[in-house]
Known about the structure:
Elements: H1 2-17, E1 21-30, E2 35-38, H2 46-54, E3 59-61, H3 62-72, E4 77-80, H4 87-100, E5 108-111, H5 115-131, E6 136-138, H6 145-153, E7 158-161, H7 163-172, H8 174-180, E8 185-188, H9 196-212, E9 218-223, H10 229-237, E10 242-245, E11 252-260, H11 266-279, E12 284-287, H12 291-305, E13 310-312, H13 318-329, E14 335-338, E15 353-356, H14 363-370, E16 380-386, H15 390-396, H16 399-403, H17 417-431, E17 433-435, H18 441-444, H19 447-452, E18 456-459, E19 462-465, H20 467-475, E20 485-490, E21 493-499, H21 502-506, E22 512-515, E23 518-526, E24 531-536, E25 543-564, E26 567-587, E27 593-615, H22 624-646, E28 653-657, E29 662-667, H23 675-681, H24 683-696, H25 721-730, E30 747-748
Parallel strand pairs: 4-9, 4-10, 5-7, 5-8, 6-7, 8-9, 11-16, 12-14, 12-15, 13-14, 15-16, 20-24
Antiparallel strand pairs: 1-11, 2-3, 17-19, 18-19, 20-21, 22-23, 23-24, 25-26, 26-27, 27-29, 28-29, 28-30
Helix pairs in contact: 3-4, 7-8, 7-9, 7-17, 9-17, 11-12, 17-20, 22-24, 22-25, 24-25
Amino acid sequence: MEELRGLAAEVRKAVSDKGGKVIYEYNEFYGDPEPGPPVNEAGLSEPLINMLRARGIERLYRFQWEAVNLANKGEDVVVISGTGTGKTEAFMIPVLERALRSRGEVVALLVYPTKALARDQARRLSSMMSGVGVPFAILDGDTPRDERRRIYENPPPILITNPDMLHVGLALSKDYRELVSTVRLVVLDELHVYQGVFGSHAKWILYRLQREAKGEVQFVGSAATIGNPEQLASELFSKEVTVVRGPRRRRGAATHLFVDYGNNSRWSFASYLISALMKLDLKVLAFTDSQQMAELVARIAKRSFSAEVGVHRAGLPAEQRKEVERAFAHGRLRAVVATSTLELGIDIGDLDAVVMTSLPKSFSSYLQRAGRAGRRGRPGVIVTLLGDDPIEAYYASRPADFFNRPPDPGYIEPSNREVAKLHLVALSLQRGALRASELPTALLQVLNEVEEMGLVRVRGDVVLATPRAAQDYVEARGIRNTGPIVKLHHGGRVIGEREMPMALYDLHPGAVYYHGGKVYLSTSLDLGRMRAELSPLPESVSFYTKPLYDIDVIDFSPQDSRLAGPVRLAYGDVHVMVSVRGYVVKDESSGQVLSEVYYEEPIKWDYITKGVMLKYPLLDFGGVEQSLSAYHALEHVLISASRPIVGASDTDLSGVSYPTGHIVIYDSHVGGNGASRLVFERLEEIEDMAEAIVGSCTCEDGCPRCVFSPYCGNNNKYLSRRGALKVLRALREVGPERPEGLPRGGMRAA
Length: 750
């Protein structure tokens, strides 16, 4: 307790020395989970009892025992328990029991979301497996050919892998299909990661695995935080599950500090705070929700505070990320700024402090990140910067509500057409021939399109792969995205990549782009070839860019509809056109606009996704501009409020609004990610939070704390907080209007 107080006091002083202020402190103290039976009374085999005792485990926790019992009976189970509380034993005991009874075949798959995490966990789990004399193997894209051959010829009972390998192996390798056809138990650790586009892909990969298996496949999922584990796991596994819950946090103590960074810019204060914590001899992991801001924070820390801070994010070469992990784990680096890539359990050694440069819109993400601090019995400190953001302002005035929130729901969109097309083609390669009448609805709905693309042939009820074209299609597409990939070129070589449509916002001509600790200027963006050319900028550059763009909804095809009070809403396919017409240049330190640049012709790109169309009552605001400002502000605040309600990240949802009261909120990913479906289902909760945000703000008629958005394509012009509040308050007094089609001329928001 005294150690924790002293640590919090030192952080408070560092914050105040730079003009910041700690506005809330929340302390956690957790003991051991509820005990279960001694290991020799838990119905375990002798080798497992001996292995657990050798690891110092004489008694199981109650939640471990419950999970083990259910799994050993063949039930599909999801274990929800905090980081470091013993989830691993809960799923490994049933795995090892199965493995001990195996006879020369793979009976269990341990599936981790990434190749790096799978290999990291294999090192941790190896002592458990060797402790009972059970061999295992890692099979992924980095497994050497000779090692693969040995695995195929002499299958181990346990195989450690990732979804990417499952996807490609099932589609393209007869040996791989035969290897995994004997699997009876599949474990998905870090289950909360299987959301959005990635989760939608995972659902169909697991479906394909079940189609290949010679018997019934049992699933065990494990996660620290999911608000709807039954629903998410049932969608992923295509079967009902039983949920076992453990404690929220491991044994130990942690202090959570909400910090107002005062008149500083968010990014300069974050850089200062990281350097200040390093001077306190703390090992620091900082998180941002933007690849570009991760690079910017590390750059400011080095330039302004002489702090060497590593960067870990998607889009960097794998070896560069691994080197950062090694340097951080071994103490050669004392601080790293990362995106969600280090939320997961990759071993980075002891960690004292976590800095969140902004409040994660997902509470589950907050818990996952905070759980990395204070591991191995040491107290941890978690500092979160709150500033001019609608959700941050909301929780700055209600901090206790934040820590009392339930975890966010997980979501996927199995009917994403781009996802469904890939897995229909992969399944046709995998099985040789399919019966159209037996296909799940989501796959059947894309059959005609896949046939027109020349990837399959349909003969009556039989679906056959077009071998060469189908294989090329599968090999050219990954499961981490659905949009086309833009390759970043510099000096005659590829240095990175970015998925569309985000590439359009980050790599438009004239954009400042941070990559690998360096600063580049995007000199051209060729969407026909999906290629961006970059040229280096001097380290002294002190500005960054934000795109100016419009969104037009070309078409909306409803699939479901309902009423939420007087608001008519429909969910369905949205055809979106993005038009980047220029960009603004902003000062790196203050965020002030330095200039605006416009293209002669906008850069356009269109795609189909999922979304919800809302029709709000058309109120009299005295003119078109006033009406546009009201509904534009309403769109912004609805998207802001959606993020904590549905657990979406900053870039999962986008929107467009019209002066007629129409608002479309859609998934930012090509084909959809599932977030807008939850908006459709939970609109009333979202409206309540939106009204609280605009109703409690004291600004004149719009500011960053209520209706401004950092993602607004119109640079936050035409916004009225009062107008948005008027619409939300009117919902209690008016009835629904007649449905009508979308007008032209929307206003881009977030």
